[in-house]
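Forum > Structural Biology > Help requests

Title: Can anyone predict the 3D structure of GDSL-like lipase/acylhydrolase?

Hi all, first post here. I have the sequence for GDSL-like lipase/acylhydrolase but no way to get a structure on my laptop. I'd be grateful if someone could post the structure tokens.
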Amino acid sequence: MKKVLTFLFICFFLFVICNYSPFPGTERVNSIKQTGISLKQELPEEFFPKDIQVVSIGDSLTEGVGDSTGRGGYLPYLEKMLEKKKSINNAEFYNFGVRGHKTSQLLERLETIEVKKAVKEADIVVITIGGNDVMKVVRENFSDLRLKDFEGEKELYKDRLNKIIFRIKTLNPDSTVLLLGLYNPFFKWFSDIKEMNLVISDWNNTSKTILSQYDKAYFVEVADIFMESPENLLHKDYFHPNDIGYKLIAERMFQTLESQGFEELTKERITAKKEEN
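Reply #1:
Sure, ran it for you. Structure tokens for GDSL-like lipase/acylhydrolase below:
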């Protein structure tokens, strides 16, 4: 009988020792912490909306020439689209567009203190450039314009565009870069300049080749928008987009960001900015 009681006592003692905790409630606290961590990990991106910075650089399409409201062309439309996303709290835009700028001038502008600072802090950099490089050839050879006249200038454009993208990525490796493609503004009003479509297509392919060499650098195709639209998308100067044209450009930019996985594009840059702070 004593042996039985002794055996039962030892079992009871071991049971108490195994389940004893010197810090009452520790298991409960740890359980709550684990639950909190689990919940935080499962929360969707839009639960913590982010502020993003968009820097626009380039020519008259960035400046917004042709926009009847004077608000900056495609910028207000793109801003509205971005801020409709649940994952974005505020999209802050910086416009450094200058009418008439070519790739050579944009390269110089990228070395100014103001633009360099903005690019370094940007989540997205939008570029509109190249139209004036093409028009330089048109003006210089208008009386006898031939396809071969564009070849030399295209090579210079290719070299300068590569330097532009390289400079942006050097200043800000994590930024997402969008380059707006060229379009042919002459096709409806000057049908005899059919070769311009070939020129625009050739230069756009050159741009795509350059962008393919960099991470998070994307081409925004817009030539088809102007070719296929039943509406007039050009300003009264028959060159720059009108309000509808700029809206469609912004929509195509937004579609490009969405197709590349917008949250993933900005996530890395936003995380890096938080670590810096």
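The radius of gyration is 29 Å. The chain has a mean pLDDT of 83.
Shout if anything looks off.
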